[in-house]
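note to self: dont lose this again. the chain is below, predicted strucutre after it. 493 aa total, dont forget to put it in the shared folder this time
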Amino acid sequence: MKGVFVVALIAFPFLMAAKLASGSHDYQDALTKAVLFFEGQRSGFLPQDQRMSWRSNSGLSDGWTYNADLVGGYYDAGDNIKFGFPMAFTTTMLAWSVLEFGAIMPPNELRNAMLAIRWATDYLLKTVSQPNRIFVQVGDPRSDHDCWERPEDMDTARTVYAVDAPNAASDVAGETAAALAASSLVFWSTDPGYAETLLRNAISAFQFADNYRGAYSDNANVKYSACPYYCDFDGYQDELLWGAAWLRRATKDDNFLNYLQTNGKTLGADDNINEFGWDNKHAGLNVLVSKEVFEGNLYSLESFKASAESFMCTLIPESPSSHIEYTPGGLLFRPGGSNLQHATSISFLELVYANYLDHTSQSLNCGNVVVSAQTLRQHAKRQVDYILGDNPMGLSYMVGYSNYYPQRIHHRGSSLPSIKDHPQFIACKEGSMYYNSTDPNPNVLVGAIVGGPGEDDVYVDNRDDFRKSEPTTYINAPFIGVLAYFAANPNFS
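---
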């Protein structure tokens, strides 16, 4: 989120350094750090085994204005707000990462990834705990963004934003249903009682989403707090299909299959197929549903698979339908902020679809170009290696990975002295001296992936440039699965 202060531009001394040798990365180390990042984003009472030790408890009274317990969850980025829409998507992607690649994760990292999921799902269950209501946000973004303050010190308004029936919140409720359903599959073998709770609440959240259709950011009491940060820009219809698809996978219930078959066209399953992220689920939806076609010969869902393959073809430069932009250094690029969210989420979809192709010994045709599972994995690996340092700047965009990474990220807790080192209260405007400082952040947010470079491959280490220097949970979440694959296949080329 955007700050309010001014900082001098700091150029890296290793600008345009020679890039690392391809294949030199320690993907296991990167995986460990990417998971650890989520501990730095925790809100609430921190456990005794908290490894990001410069963080402490925060947001302990969240929800009191509604007589509700809304303690916990994650701060979405470098601010101190809990936005339900991106948090739910983050949770879905963490769960999907474990479902697709958990079997090849080292046991300790699988455990840590599951803990990261549970920190989110424990909170998401609270957001749907009251009938015909969903809590969509905690914290007033305007007062929060007017301060540069540690989460442990925050004294800004912890306003609670809720949507009550018959008002609509199909996007947030649909994504919450997806997150809880996907997570139920993660916990089914280790904690079936918890998994059942997740699934029951997923069904309830989906019913709320479907019964009262519309975008949550159209509600007057939410609009001016969710926007312009996490408005529903692309419509709520994709979240309805996304939620139904995850419930179909979790329950095997034909009612959700029928929902996809009946509503696919009317809810725009064929629209915007070249995008995937916290606001637009179309490409991910098509990949997810295509699994049913691969495994069950459900030809009624063939259009989803066709759309998934069309999306894959747009990513391959040699394909006649290619139209995704790349930087000169080879990074997938889309205009707007936090570009690396596209690189991590799309790489994840490529690896998942590659698995589906492999399991059925298939390839896909992009015009006269045959694209194999190997091709998709190679394409994903180029994005991964770029993020980890194979780029024109020789810079790792993951904090704490390699010797060269962003030192001045746009993140309050990282840039202010730790409460462990500076227990005195730092008030709202007192934080400006740290924001404006040209010194590196005192606390290393290990594993955080920043927004990334511009279309020219250039990144300036500037705390003020939040579009490039701010990490987010939804950049990291799909990267967990991506790194798990390459950590288990380190010699892939």
